Amino acid sequence: MTIELPILITFIGYLSLMMGIGLWAYKATDSVDDYILGGRGMGPGVTALSVGASDMSGWLLLGLPGAVYLGGLGEAWIGFGLVFGAWLNWLFVAKRLRIYTEFTDNALTLPDFFEKRFEDNKGILKLVSAVTILVFFTFYASSGMVGGAILFEKVFGLDYTLALIIGSTIIVAYTFVGGFFAVSWTDFFQGCLMLVALLIVPVAIMSQPETQVGLENIDPKMLAFISDDTTVLGIISLLAWGLGYFGQPHILSRFMAIGSASEIKVSRRIAMSWMLLALVGALATGIAGSLYFAAEPLANPETVFIHLAHAAFNPWIGGLLIAAILSAIMSTIDSQLLVCSSVITEDFYKKWLRPQAQSKELMLVGRIGVLAIAVIAGIVALNPESSVLGLVSYAWAGFGAAFGPVVLLALFWRNYSRNGAIATIVVGALTVVIWKQMSGGIFDIYEILPGFILATLSGVIISNLQAPSEAIKQQFAHFEAKL
After folding, report:
1. What are phi and psi of 42, to 5 degrees?
2. Which of 232, 279, 263 is nearest to 73 (CA)?
3. Straight-line distance from the first to the last Cα atom of the chain, in angstroms, rounded to the nearest whole number
4. What CA–CA distances, in Å, run from 409 to 116, 254, 382, 466?
5. C-alpha–C-alpha distance, residues 272 and 260, integer Å
6. Which residue of 122, 313, 340, 450 has the fewest C-beta atoms within 10 A of its own C-beta?
């Protein structure tokens, strides 16, 4: 694929718009509260699309279409699990987390919320949760950087390493400048572009005569949700992706930032509508790619959307649609880097080094933290054989197993204790890490499921052995009274 001037101009124009939003947000960011949670003033529409865009990432336009391109609609079980998990997260977690984090002295991060929820004066719970976030987000952010490198490599013919450096620099720039305002508003525009691209590309390809002929002769296995190769363990593993939503810090932070709990219902409807349409588009893109490139299979299945957009439209429109991939990547990495920045600022620097630090100092530390995490994630992404879907699945499992049970138990169980929360995080994270190293038999189940189950059991057992104080129980009762 050679560099075409219209595509290059389209990319530059799009990136200029994103940087413009970042600079606008920079002027609107006056405090660390603004930088981390946008002053808890996000509207329902911005919140909904920001959740969707930061959630789906390059996986939606690279990983999932690539998986369907190879394996057919049997890969859609991931989508079923994600839709159900996202809906449950909006329905049961969003409102409670928004109210409880403000109730606990305006907690700005998950570790901060956990510390205040369990009155952990020693800071052990905050430290454990903060370290876990930084470790798994390093892998998560690196997946986005791999996606960005693949995009620039394929579209502009760049060397992988050079493509990685350019893509990562662009992504980091506006996160560094604008904080939560920039991330949320760019996510809003990126979410719109992603949805349009995922709906237009497969329709354009499917309407071509040669594709319609291919559809008549397609292998029935490609259109079957269950085939001879489908296993019960495989379906369970794909559906288990839905458990991850309860523990993703970059998604949960959107719930914490919405203007008021009363706006969550509207936001949920917008978010779920966007998600359903986007997933249908991603599945259709994979099938369209398997038909269009049946004679000459792609070397890298995860580039199927890029090639289809380039084949179906003139360079101007194709460039804009390909920019949607950059949108997906940017919308997730910026959210992840911002969460890492807030953890470094609030949960390490302010907690352990400079409790008296003021907002300007904390924002500077947060921006430096963005650069530091980006560099480490970039080093992890240097391997050109890295898989976007592989890195995402590992980080998604880590967060889902380590934090999902903690969030649910903290929001719904009065007798949940600090030691129980620590045990939950440690057991969940370690189970994912260890399970990932095993193979064969039961170990073929996606590691999030055993991690989630064992983490929940450990939290319940430890809390029953050592119950929380009466003060913590009373605090929970006051919170429930506000629902």
Report:
1. -75, 135
2. 279
3. 55
4. 15, 20, 38, 15
5. 19
6. 122
All domains of the chain in start order, with CATH: 5-389 (1.20.1730.10)
Amino acid at residue number 71 = G
Q: What single letter denotes the amino acid at residue 34?
A: D
What pTM was estimated for this model as a whole? 0.84
Q: How far apart are CA 174 and CA 453, in angstroms?
A: 38
When pLDDT is cut at 50, 70 and 90, the band that residue 45 belongs to is confident
Say if residues 447 and 427 touch (Cβ distance below 8 Å): no
**pLDDT at residue 94, as a whole number:** 96
Cα-flanking dihedrals φ and ψ of residue 258, to 5°? -60, 150
Distance of alpha carbon 71 from alpha carbon 69, whole angstroms: 6
Percent pLDDT > 70 in the chain is: 88
Strand partners, 258: 42
* Pairwise CA distance, residues 247 & 251, whole Å: 8
Q: Of 29-38, 128-137, 234-243, 293-302, which gets the smallest average pLDDT?
A: 29-38
| Segment 71-130, tens digit of pLDDT | 888 888 988 999 999 999 999 999 999 999 999 888 878 888 999 999 998 889 999 998
Is residue 246 exposed (0-12), middle (13-18) or buried (19+ Cβ within 10 Å)? buried
SS3 string, the chain, reads CCCCHHHHHHHHHHHHHHHHHHHHHHHHCCCHHHHHHHHHCECHHHHHHHHHHHHHHHHHHHHHHHHHHHHHHHHHHHHHHHHHHHHHHHHHHHHHHHHHHHHCCCCCCHHHHHHHHCCCCCCHHHHHHHHHHHHHHHHHHHHHHHHHHHHHHHHHCCCHHHHHHHHHHHHHHHHHHHHHHHHHHHHHHHHHHHHHHHHHHHHHHHCCHHHHHHHHCCCHHHHCCCCCCCCHHHHHHHHHHHHHHHHCHHHHHHHHHECCHHHHHHHHHHHHHHHHHHHHHHHHHHHHHHHHCCCCCCCCHHHHHHHHHHHHCCHHHHHHHHHHHHHHHHHHHHHHHHHHHHHHHHHHHHHHHCCCCCHHHHHHHHHHHHHHHHHHHHHHCCCCCCCHHHHHHHHHHHHHHHHHHHHHHHHHCCCCCHHHHHHHHHHHHHHHHHHHHCCCHHHHCCCHHHHHHHHHHHHHHHHHHCCCCHHHHHHHHHHHHCC
CA distance 58 to 302: 10
pLDDT band, very low/low/confident/very high, at 239 (cuts 50, 70, 90): very high
- CA dist 381 to 138, 141, 160, 180, 468, Å? 10, 9, 10, 25, 42
